[in-house]
């Protein structure tokens, strides 16, 4: 295959990297925005259930991919997805800006951090999905090393007694929290926009991303609850605290790793969501449209900072949006939309044209 045929394409493994980073960056935010209970053994049970729920919820999107029925191909539906992805950018930016302006540098206003992230997201979007995939591969390797490092550094302070009592609420509370954990997986909707850009089959890597990302966050939750005990209940950013108390020889306060990877992670997620938003409206990338979209995301993120305390949106709204854009719309698309034969016809035409022209070139 020629180089021109591979432009604006990414490998299935690159898709895994992008979605993994986008999902795991959610756990770095304030715990109150992604959970309805405290971080304890009950939350761990909810998280395991949430992983299974997410796999089930992703099946409509997977079948949309297999049957070549993409809801993004419907114009009025793609406009709804555009609004949703802009909201995803705004929520991600506002959560990071809230953390940066309240914990890292309280003297700096949150809107300034939001502006920096949105400008960087706009620049990253102009580079295209190929550049995003290469940067995501780099971030993925470093992120895995950071997680491994913090787990090893806290191994000596691990205490099983901090998990008791294992269950403190009813089963309904555990299931509700699992549903909230699962609803923070916006990557199912991102997959619907990104899979046409994947050069190869991506079903297995998509399912692997869900399992690996949830297991990675589970390990951080597991060690966080075991190391910090009841003190984790008083932490707005428990994983940041876990990195703070970590020690590696003479090196203390490994929270610089947390900050660094949250910055890179929120950049990857903002660029991915902004790129998907622009792709929903403009099939060919338009710089002016991307700039306008990033400006809208910035305004929304500042609004959330001022009126939602940086938590983005209420978990009820997050759950509703997740069910609509990740489950209901893909399911309705499978039922009512006709199969799109456009890509298959293009491939068949290309192959037949090659066979027809090849003998002529040989004769000449």
Task: Characterise the protein shown here.
The protein has 364 residues and is mainly α. Helices cover 71% and strands 1% of the residues. The chain is built from 14 helices and 2 strands, in the order H-H-H-H-H-H-H-H-H-H-E-E-H-H-H-H. Strands 1-2 form a two-stranded antiparallel ribbon. A hairpin with a 2-residue loop joins strand 1 (247-248) and strand 2 (251-252). Helix 5 (110-127) crosses helix 11 (255-281). The longest helix has 30 residues, at 75-104. The protein starts with 11 loop residues before the first helix and ends with a helix. Residues 1-5 and 344-364 have low confidence and may be disordered.
What secondary-structure arrangement, pairings included, does this model have?
Elements: H1 12-24, H2 41-57, H3 59-66, H4 75-104, H5 110-127, H6 129-153, H7 171-183, H8 187-194, H9 203-228, H10 238-244, E1 247-248, E2 251-252, H11 255-281, H12 287-307, H13 315-336, H14 342-363
Antiparallel strand pairs: 1-2
Helix pairs in contact: 1-6, 1-8, 1-9, 1-11, 2-7, 2-9, 3-13, 4-5, 4-11, 4-12, 5-11, 5-12, 6-11, 7-13, 10-11, 11-12
């Amino acid at each position: 295959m020629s180089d021109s045929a591979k432009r604006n394409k990414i490998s299935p493994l690159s898709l895994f990297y992008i979605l993994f980073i986008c999902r795991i960056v959610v756990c770095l935010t304030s715990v109150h925005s992604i959970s309805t209970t405290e971080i304890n053994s009950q939350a761990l049970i909810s998280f395991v259930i949430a992983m299974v729920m997410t796999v089930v919820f992703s099946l409509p999107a997977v079948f949309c991919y297999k049957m070549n029925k993409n809801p993004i191909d419907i114009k009025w539906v793609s406009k709804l997805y555009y609004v949703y992805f802009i909201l995803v950018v705004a929520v991600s930016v506002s959560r990071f800006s809230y953390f940066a302006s309240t914990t890292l540098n309280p003297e700096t206003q949150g809107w300034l951090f939001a502006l920096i992230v949105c400008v960087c997201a706009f620049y990253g979007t102009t580079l295209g999905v190929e550049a995003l995939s290469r940067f995501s591969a780099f971030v993925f390797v470093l992120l895995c090393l950071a997680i491994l490092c913090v787990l090893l550094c806290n191994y000596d302070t691990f205490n099983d007694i901090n998990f008791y009592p294992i269950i403190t609420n009813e089963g309904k509370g555990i299931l509700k929290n699992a549903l909230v954990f699962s609803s923070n997986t916006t990557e199912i909707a991102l997959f619907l926009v990104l899979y046409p850009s994947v050069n190869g089959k991506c079903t297995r890597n998509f399912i692997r991303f869900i399992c690996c990302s949830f297991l990675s966050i589970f390990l951080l939750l597991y060690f966080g609850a075991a190391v910090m005990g009841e003190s984790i209940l008083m932490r707005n950013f428990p994983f940041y605290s876990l990195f703070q108390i970590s020690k590696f020889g003479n090196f203390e306060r490994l929270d610089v790793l947390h900050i660094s990877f949250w910055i890179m992670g929120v950049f990857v997620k903002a660029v991915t969501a902004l790129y998907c938003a622009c792709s929903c409206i403009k099939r060919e990338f338009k710089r002016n449209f991307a700039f306008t979209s990033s400006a809208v995301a910035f305004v929304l993120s500042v609004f959330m900072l001022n009126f939602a305390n940086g938590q983005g949106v209420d978990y009820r709204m997050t759950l509703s949006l997740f069910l609509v854009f990740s489950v209901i719309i893909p399911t309705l698309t499978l039922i009512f939309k006709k199969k799109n034969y456009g890509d298959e016809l293009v491939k068949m035409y290309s192959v037949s044209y090659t066979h027809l022209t090849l003998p002529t070139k040989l004769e000449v």
